[in-house]
Amino acid sequence: MYITQESNTSKNWLRTSLMGLSFAVITACNPAADTASVMAPAAAPSAPAAALEMSSPESVGMDSARLDRITQAMQGYVDEGLLAGVITMAARDNKIVHFESVGYRDLEAQAPMTNDALFRIYSMSKPITGVALMILYEEGKFRLADPVEKYLPELKDLQVYASTDDSGNIITEPQSHKMTIRELMSHTGGLSYGIFAASPVDAKYVEAGLLDSGDTLEEFTTKLGQIPLKHQPGTTWEYSVSVDVQGYLVEKLAGQSFGSFLEERIFDPLGMTDTDFRVPEEKVSRFAQVYGYDDEGTLEAGEGFPDANFLVDPVFESGGGGLVSTAMDYMRFSQMVLNGGELDGVRILAPLTVDLMHRDQTPKTMEGSILGARGTSFGLDFAVIEDPVEAESYSTGEFYWGGAAGTWFWIDPVENLVFVGMIQQFGSKLPNVRAASKRLLYQSILDPYGI
Question: Gene3D superfamilies from the entry (predicted)?
């Protein structure tokens, strides 16, 4: 999630939206936390991976009329002026049973939202980066227990924040152990984002310009190596720039640019033809407008938002938040993950590697919870539901994440389903589309696999 210094508006929206993403994680699985005006219920083995195709909900144990309530709810948000446009998509047993767009891609131009619209997916880039790194893990390029500095000398001998002196200078201490790649991939390595708190370490992130996009991945990592860790590795979960470090790690281990690795090893094999770090000129007409809210709570276009960053090849290929994608592309990626690493006969990862990614990877000695979310743990670049009762969700082992501009997805291995939702919306009036869509999707399941 990186921005240029040219737009204070976008920078403020980014900070607000990262906080919003934190809230989304906390409330991600709370079916009662939405205001959509429709009503509730809702493990068989996964079907063999097959080409994604449209199918009737009834063919996979779901009810069409109940499933239509998702579209009704999203249209309601548009009619209330809370959202400009939305795409929702669901698949069960490798069959797409719901793919609907409502509202507008560009409200001012009255350009309708279409299923092929392009979205800034921000932090939904993170699971893709995690898969890229695990491809190299399978090839024996590293172990999860390896110190990050073994491959990235820019992060060698990092110090850890301990306190400040009377003049406000940071006092550091050595690491209790070297940050590992497992910790890097589970946000427990001691890094930060520099925008969630006013700590001395966060201030150093801002001073160093780590949220600016003018650096290469190498330059970014070099800057990061000059700043103390905020926490001792393995002691605290904190959302961080660690996935951008992972992108640089992919470059170093693969011996090629991060973007070219993603294209060759994930996007091209999976047919993700619209996912990239930039929007080519011929696709700009499909690029959804970003919206926020004015002081009266009315939708307004994101004036000054740096879309130019997405229209040229970026210097900084952000694995943490730099990708643009479509609902269909992200569904293909997510279905591959649900299938244990394979889609349409193309294997990206082995089933046991995918399983490793959505197992709890946080230290058992670590206190606290993931962004305050009850019943939730963290795997390798995915949040994971460990206790659906505590999390107010449906299935143990569901894994998910979201993006700063409101995009969201989850994967449910128990019910063998994937859901992808796409909006481009910042601001405090943003409705809890994740909670609403989750409640409405599960109440459409009449043949549950998990009971």
Answer: DD-peptidase/beta-lactamase superfamily
* H or E stretch at 174: strand 170-174
Domain hosting residue 153, numbered range: 1-451
Round to whole Å and give the CA distance between 333 and 341.
Answer: 9
d(CA 336, CA 89): 15
User: What does the alpha-carbon distance between residue 419 and residue 412 come to, in Å, rounded to a whole number?
Assistant: 9
Predicted confidence at residue 1, as pLDDT, reads 33
* The three-state (H, E, C) secondary structure of 235-287, written as one string: CCCCCCCHHHHHHHHHHHHHCCCHHHHHHHHHHHHHCCCCCECCCCHHHHHHE
State the burial class of residue 168 (Cβ atoms within 10 Å of its Cβ: 0-12, 13-18, 19+): exposed
Residue 10, pLDDT score: 42
Confidence band, pLDDT 50/70/90 cuts, at residue 11: very low
Spatial CB neighbours of 22, under 8 Å, sequence gap ≥ 6: 196, 239, 371, 372
Averaged pLDDT, 193-212: 89
Helix (H) or strand (E) holding 335: helix 327-338
Tell me the three state secondary structure of residue 359: coil
User: Residue 306's domain is classified under what CATH number?
Assistant: 3.40.710.10
Residue 106 has pLDDT above 80, yes or no: yes
- Residue whose entry in the numeric block shows the structure tokens 């936390």: 33
Q: What is the mean pLDDT of residues 397-403?
A: 97
